[in-house]
Amino acid sequence: MTPYTKAIFSEPVLLREKLAIYLQTPKKVELYASAAEFFFSMGNKEKLAKVPTWSWYGLFVAPALFMYRRDYVNMLISVFIVVFPCYMFAAASWESITIFGIIFMNFIYLIPIFYAMAAKYIIISKFEKILRLEDDEILKNKGGVNEFALLVGAILGIPLLFLGSGWGFVLIAAIVNGRGG
């Protein structure tokens, strides 16, 4: 952290002002401000500590959450880590699935739990990196939301809530591949 970012994280009112510029969603400023203060205090007010918090959005629709927060790199990573292995598992012939494959799919369940615990940290650390530039206009332009992600989240969230994180994608992939029963 730079002296500038430390000063902002040390002053609650200023932190909320900068988060309001970045997030552009007034209802979420207090949620992320509390998380930012927690990460900063756990890092002894020298850095942001990587400590777990909880995000239901991170658990069920991490790709849509990162897309909504315009963090496309983490969106792509979460899609690749969750969707691709599940699709490959579903695309395999059901007769060739081994105990290793079943264990692998159960391991996939841990990834959404990781995103549930890390989503706020990922968003706040991106905010802190942009804050280092000391320019509110850049903070506003690199922040904000992508409204299209709400639709994506709804579409992804239905099978995910119904069937569980990885297995929802397995069902979709199986249906697409003509193996859905």
Task: Briefly say what this structure is.
Helices cover 74% and strands 0% of the residues. With 181 residues, it is an all-alpha fold.
Structural notes for this entry:
- With 181 residues, the protein is mostly helical.
- It is built from ten helices and no strands.
- The chain has helices spanning 3-10, 12-23, 29-42, 56-68, 72-91, 99-108, 110-131, 136-142, 148-163, 165-176.
- Helix 4 (56-68) crosses helix 5 and helix 4 packs across helix 7.
What level of helicity do the residues show? Answer: over 70%
Share of residues in strands: under 5%
Order of helices and strands: HHHHHHHHHH
Low-confidence stretches: none
Q: Over all CA atoms, what is the radius of gyration?
A: 19 Å
Number of strands: 0
Task: Name the average pLDDT.
Answer: 80
Q: Tell me the distance between the termini.
A: 54 Å
Tertiary shape: globular
Largest sheet: none
Helix/sheet category: mainly alpha
Question: Number of DSSP helices?
Answer: 10
List its traits:
181 residues; mainly alpha; 74% helix; globular
Question: Secondary structure elements and their pairing?
Answer:
Layout: H1 3-10, H2 12-23, H3 29-42, H4 56-68, H5 72-91, H6 99-108, H7 110-131, H8 136-142, H9 148-163, H10 165-176
Helix pairs in contact: 2-3, 2-8, 4-5, 4-7, 4-9, 5-7, 5-10, 9-10
